[in-house]
Amino acid sequence: MSGNRKREVLILLSVGGGLALLPLLVGEFYLYVIRLILIYAISALGLNIFMGFAGQINIGSAGFFCIGAYLPTMLQIKLGWHYLTAFPLTVVLSLFVAWGMSYPLLRLRGHAMAIGTLSFAMAVHLIAERFPILTGGADGIVVPPMALWGRTMGNTFYYYLILVFTVAAYLICFLLVESRIGRAFRATRDDEAGAAAMGVDVDHYKRLAWVVNGVFAGVAGSLYAQQAGFLSPSTFSLWTNIIVLVMIVVGGLGTNLGSVAGAAIMTSLPYFLAAIQQYILLVQGLVLFIFLRFLPYGVIGTLARRYRRPLLAKKG
Amino acid sequence: MEKLLKDFISIMLVGLSLGSLFGLVGLAYTVIINASQLVNFGQGDFCMLGVAVCWFLLSIFGWPLWMAFPIAVIAGGLLGIITEKVMVTPLLKREVHPFYPILGTMAVGTIVAGGVGIYTGFYWMQIKYFFGTEPWRVKELSIDTQGALIIVTTLMLVIAYWFLLNKTRLGTALRATGFNREVSTLMGIQTSRMVRLSFVISGVIAAIAGVLCAPLSAFTALDGLPLAVSGFIALIVGGWGNPYAAVLGGVTLGVIRALLTGYFSSAHAELATFFVLIVVLTLRPSGIYAGFMIPKAIKH
Amino acid sequence: MNRVDLTLKEGRITALIGPNGSGKSTLINIISGVYAATEGNIFFEGKCIDGLPTHKIVEMGIARTFQLTKLFKGMTVVENAMMGGHSWAKAGNFFPIVLNRPSVRNEEKAVHEYAMEMLKLAGIQDRASDMAGNLPHGQQRLLELARSMATKPKLILFDEPAAGLNPHEEDMLKEALHSILRMGVTILLVEHHMRLVMNVSDWVHVIDVGCKIAEGTPKEVGKNPAVVKAYLGKEY
Question: Which of A212, B259, C47, C52 could form a disulfide with C56 if both were Cys (CB 3.0 to 4.6 A apart)?
């Protein structure tokens, strides 16, 4: 077990190191795409904890993403806060909202939980669209650039900021998965009654996984807002909820590496397909379909099954 | 005072028609749930597909309504078969994450939405009122013809469904399959056909609902998912697994939304749906109309 | 269940037998908090445990196995056994884990070691790194036993552990039961398998249709006419 872990840490460090050197080597366009990939990777990692490891279902990722994007932005605009003070508050608020929403949402049976989470995202989107006081309304709002020590920060700064958070997020997930908590998650996924018989407080662990999911998505959202420079509610509309979902299915439900891989693939795909806006929805649907039906363990999951011990869930 | 009453009645009618749409979507969900314990999250897109096919035949081919409508309905049924055959049943057989069949139905819905969207440019698909926009005047009330048509059709569909389930052998087979699939198979019922049938019925109902409501609130390719959510909320609010409760739940939601839109704003109305969901889940999780029309023998 | 009165002697094996449908599994479900009793109380070490949720009952020291194994098929055999450590090795909370504190790492080692010991007790330590779902049926049941023992219980409730075991596996089960007794753990054995029960138990309760019909040593109960009738019908 520890041999595998050491290997994974080494991979993480080398990839992280490589990414850190990238701004010296490639142009702004590639850095832009990688920034997006890393942001979505954080969101995907969080969703994967809740869905892949704890075995629940959440199709409302855009909800926390939206909250995480708007909150620090509005705090900066309306109250003149600095991003670095607004950010911790965002984390705390995401935590509270997630914790609060867990009570009605996590009691639901599978399908109802799916719709419940989607409704949550729908409600957040509605609020963002119809209550301009909170979000600057449907036309969108410009995100003030971050300033540190009197200088406005540029894209390279954002790149490193995002990279740090992504590596941190990955490390957290990595440590969680093979720990007592990670085992409790997987036990809940595999057999709730069996988990209870092992002393696992199933409700508590579902809640914990959900909160992790929400906080990760909130963090990703706030990073997204900062580096995008402009926010509008349409970025968080109903259909955007499936984006992260497709990512973790493509990468492989139940593997951290898969979440990152899925984020990489699905984020860069539109750029390879000449970014025809209209086709994106259809492509997402097709990709989801193909992977669910033919490659259910995702890219990383299928590779893992072939080359080393399975990392994944199998339905019991 | 009279004006208030008139306003109230027209709002109620809008609410009833809108609610019927939600209710029919809820009914469509329940048909599948009752036969197979599955939830088809592409349900809203089934409605949207019906609208798209009908609009296409009407606008591009210039077909008359009486020809386009049945084709649209058939399209709905076909999508049901496709979803079941291509996505759901294969996934059920494999050992994958327990939510894969649900995600699979969403994938199908997304493909349909994406495909229609590309063709229509995500623009509105206008369908004209069936009987013309002149409202029907009864005494001093003017009743919207399309709204009335929706309400009447909903009643007919619910009665037809009740008849199918309770008075035909096919209906009994459907109910048996949902109740206990293994035993039904042992008793000679072709359960996989029953499941397929439930998808077809659900697709047909969804398409009818969509086309009937499209004149009132134009559909775009993206409207499937919000409708799927509202329909499902109708189902939860009304009563899980009970088709009549689902319809009532939908009507209740529709009326609440219409009232809020009429007296406050549509933003409030849409948020209210979510609010009602939370309230129902907290106070009466089995649904407001949970026991409605379920024979006492099954209730325990 | 109707007025079942059961007292378990500490450190012994008490068996609960009865024909199919007599309510044996129901009793286990009630004790372990899965179902709530409408009347009556359950006392463990002098404390009333009615109405406690299952995971709290595990923390108090009562473990159970399931008639249809509820193994975690997405995890390996040893990971399943390590689940047992969840209730007594609690240093692994969110922040200690993500900060990779030594207390957490040491605890993981301890949990792993104890899990391996329990696998040895059940005789399946060789399959430690296999996926739990890949084990043959008999070994899956032994894994159920190992993982329940890994919770360090004071009392363990076995729900038909011998069902579907071949004679070799049955012997391993018997060995395991004896080892468990040697550790000082009290056992309630709910079984249908007469030979095992008579061989292994110190005291037997018999229930039928939810009511207790007899109680005594295995020999006494075996001769009790009411018991024979319940099992074999009126012909005898």
Answer: C52
